[in-house]
Every structure is written in structure tokens, then in C-alpha cells.
Design goal:
By secondary structure, this protein is an alpha+beta fold. The protein has helices spanning 10-42, 53-63, and strands at residues 85-87, 97-110, 116-135, 138-145, 148-156, 160-164, 167-181. Strands 1, 2, 3, 4, 5, 6 and 7 form a seven-stranded antiparallel β-sheet that branches. A hairpin with a 2-residue loop joins strand 4 (138-145) and strand 5 (148-156). It is globular.
């Protein structure tokens, strides 16, 4: 707070206190996100509840001490769920939740050795937990769906072409996507 015996102005005191509060909030949010990811990873290979994507996300969030689906309103087969504070793709971090609507992705990877690989993914109505933000709009999520146990899946969330590790990746994404930061109870 300054040198011993030195008085700080009220503005500097307030600024210092706000800085401490903001740092504490960031640390708490990072800890919540880490707990969400840890709990979701512990479920890999299992079916949670009825196998619905929302069941996994709701159970993991509540287990981590975050607000669950019931905290934000309606639930139904055609509802676009809310999972916390809305954020932008650029701010997504591990433990955040992604809500999908009419999502379609095509991704082509032209490898440095001349070979190529393609991936497509569709999610008419889906929810997943962010495991890692891999950059350039590429995110690895933890998800489940009826008939498919909890798994990880690397998906694109932004259209564009970029280079990484000598590979050229072209990704096209359509549909609606919402990104949420869970809120502690």
C-alpha cells in the first residue's frame, strides 16, 4: 500500500481495494472453472443420468458449487438454456459452458506432410463444457448425448483459415452459439 508511514490518497486507497477485490474474483472464477473441468473429466466414458447433454452439464455445475439449469428459467426440448453470465468467444476459458442451436461445422486440415483430414459436426440443440480453449476459435469440449457416454470433442466455433504447427486449418461454422461463465451459488 505504499511506504511505511506514507499516506495514500482516498482515490489510491479505493483503487487498491478494488484491485484486490477484482483479483479475488478472478481467482475464485478460475478455481470454479478448474473444478467444473475436473468433475466433468471424472465422468469420461460414463453415461450421466438419462444421457442428455444438459444432465451432464447441470450435474457437474451443481457438483462444483455453481448454479444449475433451474437457476435460469425454463427447461424443454426446444429451449436455449442459460448457464451463467453471457461472455464472448474470445473470453471462453476452461469450465465455461457452450449452448448450441443449429450448429454445423466443417473443418479441413491440410497437414504439412501434404496429407489432409476433414471433420464435420452437427448439433441441432446441444450443450457442452469447455475443457480447453485451443485458440483461433477451436475449443475442446466435454459432452455427452443419449447413446454416447461422456467424451471430449475438438470443435471449431469461428469460421476462418489459420496456420498452426505447420498445418493449414480451414473452418466453417454456422448456427447460433452462446457462451456462458458459470456463477457460484
Amino acid at each position: 500500500m505504499g511506504l511505511p508511514g506514507q499516506k495514500l490518497s482516498r482515490v489510491k486507497q479505493t483503487s487498491w481495494a478494488l484491485g484486490l477485490l477484482m483479483t479475488a474474483a478472478v481467482v475464485a472464477q478460475t478455481a470454479l472453472g478448474a473444478k467444473v473441468v475436473h468433475l466433468a473429466q471424472a465422468d469420461l466414458g460414463q453415461q450421466i443420468g438419462d444421457g442428455e447433454c444438459t444432465t451432464l452439464v447441470d450435474q457437474v455445475l451443481r457438483g462444483a458449487g455453481a448454479r444449475g439449469l433451474g437457476s435460469y428459467g425454463g427447461y424443454g426440448p426446444d429451449t436455449d438454456y442459460v448457464w451463467g453470465t453471457p461472455i464472448q468467444l474470445k473470453d471462453v476459458q476452461p469450465g465455461d459452458v457452450i449452448q448450441f442451436r443449429n450448429y454445423h461445422m466443417t473443418r479441413r486440415i491440410q497437414h504439412a506432410d501434404g496429407s489432409a483430414s476433414n471433420k464435420t459436426a452437427d448439433a441441432p440443440h446441444h450443450t457442452g463444457i469447455v475443457q480447453t480453449n485451443d485458440g483461433n476459435g477451436q475449443i475442446t469440449i466435454i459432452e455427452q448425448s443419449v447413446g454416447t457416454p461422456v467424451q471430449t470433442n475438438s470443435l471449431g466455433f469461428a469460421s476462418g483459415t489459420f496456420n498452426t504447427h505447420g498445418d493449414t486449418i480451414t473452418c466453417t461454422v454456422t448456427g447460433q452459439l452462446w457462451y456462458y461463465r458459470p456463477i457460484a451459488r
